[in-house]
Fold this sequence. Notes:
Blueprint: E1 2-4, H1 15-21, E2 36-38, H2 39-62, H3 68-80, H4 93-109, H5 114-133, H6 137-146, E3 152-153, H7 156-161, H8 163-169, E4 181-185, H9 190-194, E5 199-201, E6 204-208, H10 209-229
Parallel strand pairs: 1-2
Antiparallel strand pairs: 3-4, 4-6, 5-6
Amino acid sequence: MQFSGSKRRKLRLAGDHRAACYPHSLQFYLQPPSENISLIEFESMAVDRVKLLKTVENLGVSYVKGTEQYQSKLESEIRKLKFSYRENSGNEYEPRRKDHISHFILRLAYCQSEDLRRWFIQQEMDLLRFRFSILPKDKIQSFLKDSHLQFEAISDEEKSYREQDITASSPGGVKLELESVYKVPFADALDLFRGRKVYLEEGFAYVPSKDISAIVLNEFRAKLSKALATLQ
């Protein structure tokens, strides 16, 4: 990411290429931005990102995370600040670009102490949790692949074959006909295993989609924590 004068250099990308830059409304921020932006845009994006994360924090205190009220108010605030939040919501290139660049700006300019890094990680996790919760089911597999997470949804035949074991291992039961099940390496599902919430076989955990978010968030936290540690 480089800085220029008061105007940023516009990237002239065709529609397909623009979509390829940011295929989803959420991401793991695995690659830093490489385009030029102006100092004015840098400051504007930084301020909006801080506003967004403080909103995430405040709503998490005022409402139970994941409830309808929490989801509705957070979506409204994200929309006001013009960040990405939902798949298939029109032209999402600019909101997703802003989301990408502003995340890295705060990594560099905001996370200057251990307390600020912990705060940043927690709010980014809560933001990802919200976005993942509204991600359409048919987009989850491609998001996992783009995030370099090797979690494959098993076939309906395999799901039917293991249905009794998977259902018995899921607290409160689960209707597998309505959910995908992901085959996850055991090491990535340790928290679910410790809580006796997952079926294990030959080194793999079979995780219903209702529980996959916990693993995704753990992976995100680990990658973000490692990336921030390299900046110290």
